[in-house]
Please model this.
Amino acid sequence: MELERKQLCPLLKKKCIQLDCMWFIKVAGNDPATGKDVEEWGCAVNFQFMGLLEVAKRVTKGFDGVQGATESMRNEVAAANEGGRYAINYRPK
Model:
């Protein structure tokens, strides 16, 4: 059995008017599950949830390496700090 989705506008509460509506947009990108390109037309109100999920995923992931770069920089600063601390505490005999 195949389900058919009704084209009900969430704003007008009637049949979607598609290209006559300013909220009807094209979303293009790639499917992270398959890697295939995706191009889909639909209501921006309905796409908001998908956008929120994508943002949450990127924040959790660390914006594609920014988190790793930040941690690497922190380690470099900590190592330089340790060397500076040794130089300050050095007392020749």
